[in-house]
Specification:
two-stranded antiparallel sheet, 19 helices, alpha+beta, 5-stranded antiparallel beta sheet
């Protein structure tokens, strides 16, 4: 029987673990990500957006069991170290070094690997619950993992084996194109030949299904590569309807004015073609970066394709231009709420109400947080 959860927890399936990790990483925040999938309970400690440490209540994730399973220590060494641990209360790793079973470098490497494996194991969860607590923390560890979160996300998705979860996150009809950050992100990896071929097929024209049918080999493995690239935002979806094609061609050629792009973007948004409107509004703000309304509609489009971190940045930009628009603060508060950042959402809704005490949406959203 599962235990009751407090109101801070959200359903992991509704948000997707890779997107949660990337959002926290991009925010540069410090806090603890709490995750539960009975009987497992795991904590990820993040400082300034970097994963520092992780803990688990699962016995197989413990350092000693981990070392024993990997053949780094013997059964006799394990039990001797446990006897001393119970007697002295020292940390297990320190005892293993003192007994000469491990060198300090062996221990450092083992702890970093253990932390990485705890994080990677969560990618295999089919469901669970989480909440992110933005808070300073002290961890009693001399060895911490300052991992590149993007690399961990990519590696974690490559180890997933839940086809429905991947398929739902990346429908076969999705058309993909490389993002503006793609080259910067690609430098973090050493792709093999099959991965390079997949990347070369992402051209803003082919659907996911087109790419898979062009490739040889294991379709699921190829799909995981595409999902991993999407999750780290190296590739992004694009709506290439006839209208979207026309708009994007004019945007690329530079023949459209920012006003025309804004008008076309709002039309696409109202038609529910959010991926296309994102691309159009991005071009509009590039051409005219002093228009708050352009950033606002860019943010609203991004929200509808679950790119919450980018939406937050666009709303902050809109607020910088028009600092007393309560609607912008309200939408920013909604983004924080969706990301589980209730403290930030609370402050943002309160500020919206200072500007406009009659903002019922902000008031209602604030009361829900405080329940």
């Amino acid at each position: 029987m599962s235990e009751a959860l407090d109101d801070r927890y959200k359903r992991l399936k509704d948000y997707r673990f890779p997107e949660i990790l990337l959002s926290v990483s991009n925010s540069g925040e410090t806090g603890i990500l709490h995750l539960k999938n009975w009987p497992a309970e795991k904590l990820i400690y993040i400082k300034n957006g970097k994963i520092m440490f992780a803990t688990s209540n699962i016995e197989e994730d413990c350092l000693g069991i981990n070392l024993l399973t990997k053949g780094k220590i013997t059964v006799t060494q394990y039990y001797e170290s446990i006897r001393l641990l119970e007697k002295t209360g020292k940390r297990h790793g320190s005892i293993l070094v003192e007994l000469g079973y491990l060198t300090q470098k062996d221990l450092d490497d083992a702890v970093k690997k253990q932390v990485e494996e705890i994080v990677l194991s969560i990618f295999k969860w089919e469901d669970g619950y989480f909440f992110y607590e933005e808070t300073p923390f002290n961890i009693d560890e001399s060895i911490t993992l300052e991992s590149d979160t993007v690399t961990l996300i990519y590696k974690g998705i490559k180890e997933m084996d839940n086809f429905p979860q991947i398929r739902n996150a990346l429908p076969f009809t999705t058309i993909l194109t490389t993002s503006t950050n793609a080259h910067k992100l690609f430098r973090k990896f050493r792709f093999d030949d099959s991965e390079k071929k997949i990347i070369n097929l992402v051209d803003g024209k082919r659907t996911v299904l087109d790419i898979l049918t062009t490739l040889h080999g294991d379709d699921l493995e190829n799909l995981k590569v595409l999902y991993a690239l999407k999750s780290i935002e190296a590739v992004i979806p694009i709506d290439y309807s006839d209208t979207g094609k026309e708009v994007m061609l004019s945007a690329v050629s530079g023949t459209s004015s920012p006003e025309a792009l804004y008008k076309k973007g709002t039309e696409l948004f109202m038609d529910g073609k959010y991926s296309a409107s994102v691309n159009v509004f991005r071009e509009a703000v590039n051409l005219k970066p002093d228009k708050a309304s352009y950033y606002f509609y860019l943010a609203m489009s991004l929200i509808n394709i679950s790119m919450l971190e980018d939406a937050e940045n666009a709303l902050i930009k809109a607020i910088e231009i028009e600092p007393f628009n309560d609607d912008y603060y309200t939408e920013l508060g909604m983004v924080y709420t969706k990301r589980g950042l209730n403290r930030k959402a609370n402050k943002t809704f309160e500020f919206a109400l200072r500007i406009n005490p009659h903002n019922q949406r902000a008031r209602h959203s604030l009361s829900k947080i405080k329940k």
